[in-house]
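Q: Could you fold this chain for me?
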Amino acid sequence: MQGLKKAAIASFLISMLVLLGGGWLAIDRVPPYPAKIVSDGQKLSGKTEIIKGQNAYQRYGLMDLGSVWGHGTLRGLDFSATTLNLTGRYMREYYAEKSGKAYAALDPDSAAAIDAKVIREIKINNYDPSTGVLTLSESQGYAFSKVKAYWREAMENGDNTYGLQARTMKEEAEALAVGDFFFWTAWAAGTLRPGAQSTYTNNWPPDVTVGNTLMPDALLWSIAGIVAFFIILGIVIYCVHRYQILYGDEKAVQTGELMLELPLTLSQVRAAKFFVVVTALFILQTCMGGLLAHYTVSPGTFFPDFIATLIPYSWAKSWHLQLAIFWIATTWIGASIYLAPVISGREPKGQGLLVNILFAAVVLVAVGSLAGTALGTKGYFTEDTWFWFGHQGWEYLESGRFWQWLLFVGLIAWLVIVYRGMKDKLFGAEKDNSGVVMFYLVSAVMVVGFFGFGFFYGKGSHLTIADYWRWFVVHLWVEGIFEFFGVAIISLFLVMMGLVKKESAMKVAYFSAILVFASGIIGTAHHYFWYGGPSYWLALGAVFASLEPIPMILLAVRAWKEYQAIQDAGKEFPYRWPLFFLTASSFWNFLGAGMFGFSINLPVINYYEHGTYLTANHGHAALFGV
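A: Sure. Below is the predicted structure, expressed as structure tokens.
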């Protein structure tokens, strides 16, 4: 047992060291913000304008309409890919006009010569790190002015094809600056990284007209990922059977029968309110999802008309994502509060009052955050307040920083409530020596702690660095730490109910933790393939993300056995449908997060799939398993 415990701790520490170390090494290798962008001796833009455009992109929630470097929403344009393609097109027009003809009228040889020249100019990196000056060729300077005009007109007049509303931005200066930002993202996606034969985004997006094609490394590491999957799966299957890790009778039916006999405490009764809120949030999320589905088919239209005018796609998408996070987090809070007296056998004085206070805080955060993001997409906040109270601008983390802090404080309060209910099992005469209670408490601390990574970036942070920390919350918090917490709470509950031996529960818990940490933490790297980071993320993401389905396969097998036991218990079994729900969640976790994720995470596939609806297929199915 001590060996498994040490292996679980080592798995977590080593995996975090690799992920954090990779981020540290990437700091100086992100696409630079040029202090000045010049062409033909004239200043065109610079870091100030680029950051202003980036802020405008985030302030109005455009990541919940379109995307940059493939990260964002799939309904709208990928602004970086579109701008890169436009840049190449305008550069070809520039050279064609110098020859006295339109590009479309050129003979094949002349067109091919211009194509090659444009690709060569795009690939040459004319950024001088010693001065911070990016020098554009004449054709690039021409394309820059055309790109800015293109995006200014799009933000002013809208584009109903992609659900972009007219006057998306309130100030013309913002509409101009967002063009500077989009051009910079296109430059990073098109020009070669110093000392490399690939761009800052590892040649994404795929676009042969500007010379972007698949890197050979992507194919190599995709093969390595497949090989690693089969090798580790074989080792895990051997360990499961050799050490009988998941052996034993199914416990779902016995658990349900014992639950019927338990008395309710005051905190458990008051915890019921959380599930009423969960139901309301879930229904509202479903309504927003239905509206998004309609917008996908008929962008910018609805009956009655005022709904489409009032609620743009970015508003509906922001709420759809936020509501999912809120109802899932609220479910965990309510469930752990309900189970605390069951596990500890007692209820601390004043626990019911603390539960009521926490409930009020949860409602305040949910209402305030939703109102803030809605008003933010409409531009009702000032330059100094939008980031704090409006739309923060990051997909899945749309809540303004103020509301984000309040949620973090609420999670800490939840942790205190859980600890108060468990402390007798940690210290004193009733101390649990098996480690199962401490295992649960550590998992709860990690739920709170990993949410805190969302504070490691701020307004105006470098796009690549901010996105690096964002995935610590979006991927690690949801797909890693939540699974770890789920294993912990189930193990603790089964032990305290007397359904399994402590040693058996801890063996399963530690083994599951090893798999989740080793695959999920470093596997986060698959989100960094094309977002301005070094190419070593391709290797780490390809190999370790390929291992993520393995613990989910084990959960699916166990869920099938529990399903059969529930069926055998008969239709009169009182907790039949709740337990069906739990087993179904394990199946969807395996299918959505595991198999659908595996099918798109290999670099050779992800290069072409990134930014398409297959990502949404993976995300929605995975959510069913959370």
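A (continued): The chain has a mean pLDDT of 88.
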